[in-house]
Amino acid sequence: MVTKRPGLSTRAVHGDLVKRSEWAPIADPIYQSSTFTNPIGSSAEVLYTRYGNNPNQIAIAKRLAALEGAEAAVFVASGMGAAALAHLAVLRPGDHLVSSDWIYGGVRRLFRQEFGRLGIEVTFVSPVETRNWKRALRPNTRAIFVETPTNPLMRVLDLEPLATLSKAEGLALIVDSTFASPINFRPLEYGADIVIHSATKYLNGHSDVIAGVVAGTESLVEEVRKLMQVWGQALDPMAAWLIERGMKTLAVRVDRQNATGMAVASWACTQPGFAAVHYPGLPSHPDHVTARRVLAGFGGMIGVELAGGAQAADRFLRSLRLTAHAPSLGGVETLVSEPRFTSHASLTAEERAQAGIPDGFLRFSLGLEDADDIIGDFAHALAQV
Ligand SMILES: Cc1ncc(COP(=O)(O)O)c(C=O)c1O
To answer: Which tens digit of pLDDT belongs to each residue from 212-237?
Structure first.
């Protein structure tokens, strides 16, 4: 009998679809236990929550692997933990990494401050031209890292030429896919070797957990798991349980955020108070054609530039009534942040302007409120500017 692979929503709700035994709970219990009994004389790995083999940790890893189409996955204590361990699994002292210039500020700090101390060199390149990547390669280059869609300009990268280059040169292609979630984009289908997420964002989706995940082949994930154990990066069972609950609604949340994103962006680009609107669903976005081809939805993240600059942004923020001024993204509540004070605080004003993030830039993470109410909140704030 040929069985059709369950759809993404089904995989989000059920993970890998194991038949339940009689009297089984529909919601898994929390195994809030640091340790477990072992059979006496057994040489099998002991069950210990820091080892990542607690049932709650295993359940979410299987569910995420099923969503990404990966052989395996492992959750860790934060998105930063996932970024660090994914790279440490493939890089050794003396190795060279080529990273996209358009990445989350925390990961940039990790590469700049910490990797040098470990003897790992990092070169940053502007990612849209494949020849930039080729030029940056050295004999000791081992990996390429990109984030897509990017923060906060929502640039959507075409992974296929990068995957071809990586395969030809024997490099690992590592992709941070936090902004898309596996509902909108699955990097492994486009030739990536490793996908990472800050599970703090869409995967959990309720702004109440810090977590990260690395997915890829069984052997790569095993490397990450070993690092997680010795670097003390395991996820707490309660956090794992909350992520499992969050992932069950991932598909409906992201579908709704895609629809709201399109509605809010279409409205925003008609407002003279916004000098620019960055949303891959708009034909004016530089990567609209690529986004249409590779993304299942354009997402719930929007960047805007206030026509009146930093002062206008300040007044706009103070006038919002529904939207909370808070960093982070991917939750059920609409949030707004100013990259110059958050993700891009480590850059100078000139560096930010050069990167296309001038003062007056605001980043919205749209939640699950009615689109009309979100637009109403923004319209009211814009009228006060
Ligand atoms: C794209 C991206 N990657 C990684 C991270 C780091 O995740 P965490 O805060 O869970 O450590 C963030 C956090 O904002 C992010 O936006």
So the answer is: 999 999 999 999 999 999 999 999 99
**Could you say which of 104, 158, 287, 363 is catalytic?**
104
Contact 273, 234 (CB under 8 A): no
Ligand 1 atom nearest the C-alpha of 343 is 14
Mark 348-385 as b/e (b = at least 16 C-beta within 10 Å).
Answer: eeeebeebbbbbbbbbbbbbbbebeebbebbeebbeeb
Residue partners of 25: CB distance under 8 A and separation at least 6? none
pTM above 0.90, yes or no: yes
Looking at residue 1, its pLDDT comes to 47
In one-letter notation, the amino acid at residue 309 is G
Best residue among 103, 201, 207, 208 to mutate for probing ligand 1's pocket (most ligand atoms within 8 Å of CB) is: 201
Q: pLDDT grade, residue 3 (50/70/90)?
A: low
377 included as an active-site residue = no
The one catalytic residue among 50, 226, 245, 315: 50
Q: How far is CA 128 from CA 30, 134, 148, 155, in A?
A: 44, 12, 11, 9
Which stretches within the chain are classed as H helix? 8-14, 55-68, 79-90, 105-109, 116-117, 130-136, 159-169, 181-184, 218-230, 237-248, 250-268, 288-294, 309-319, 349-354, 371-384
The answer to whether the CB of 326 is under 6 A from ligand 1 is: no
- Could you tell me if the CB of 149 is within 6 A of ligand 1? no
Whether 210 lines ligand 1, by a CB cut-off of 6 Å, is yes
Q: Which atom of ligand 1 is nearest to 103's Cα?
A: 1
